[in-house]
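Much of what follows relies on a compact textual record of a protein's fold. A record is reproduced here so that you can trace the correspondence yourselves:

. . .
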Amino acid sequence: MNTKFVFLLLPEIHLMDLAGPDQAIQEAIGFGADFEIEYCNLTNGIISTSGLPIGNVAHYTKVKLSKGDYLIIPGANSSYLTSEEFKRNADLLDWIKTNNENGINICSICSGSFVLAESGLLDHVPCTTHFKKTKELQQKYPKTKVIENILFTDHNGIYTSAGIASGIDLTLHIIEKLKGSQLAHLVARELVVYNRRAGNSAQDSELLKFRNHIHSGIHKAQDWILDNIHIKTNLEYLAEIANMSERNFTRIFKKETNITVSDFVTLIRKEKSRELLKNPNLSRIEIANRIGLQSERQLSRILNSQ
């Protein structure tokens, strides 16, 4: 069954808060992810903050979500979201809360966090919003645990993100959780978001590091390494993939990634082995073979390397 992502379109919506996550999911679908996208609204005749009218889509009461699906609430003009006019939509707020109780993941982009807070979903929950609105969110909803200077939060099926572009970071985080690091990287690269950002200061996965460049040949070589880590790396072949000489390839690889080809392969092997070690049905020699090594001793050396 496909994982469904439903976007709730509210009056005075911020287009970037919608378009960024939407495009990230669409790119994931293009790479084969079993996702689907739907849209719903609070009322017809929605106009964005930039004045762009949005065509009619289904009313939120017509949308059916299943456990594990995602309801995404893009940000809108905060003066509207904190108004008495919006707060009178008790049925909508109950619908959001009920969906969460039924196992639906609820995500807010930017000021969308005010909707979650009004529904009570952020009570005693770590959350964030646009840096200009964090104090207001905390003051208006004192039960929340607002975190400043963070891109997004992930807490028991409740996701919140900071302003605008961080909605893409959150969506890439969700894609990675559902489909793995490599797909998240492919989507990030397609969006020209090479420098993947974590929600906090935690180190990024090695699968996603050293990709903060736009050299297509080096990206192709890195992709081949990721897809074929079980095969002994052939420098001559990698250079051919990158469409350059072997000497130039090693020089450009180090220049663009700030790491040697050999060290990059070692880091990928370490990351892959850590993932495989979570499988109790795999022996250490099987894991070694799956990352292109010949013995448990080599595996131990990789895992213990700095």
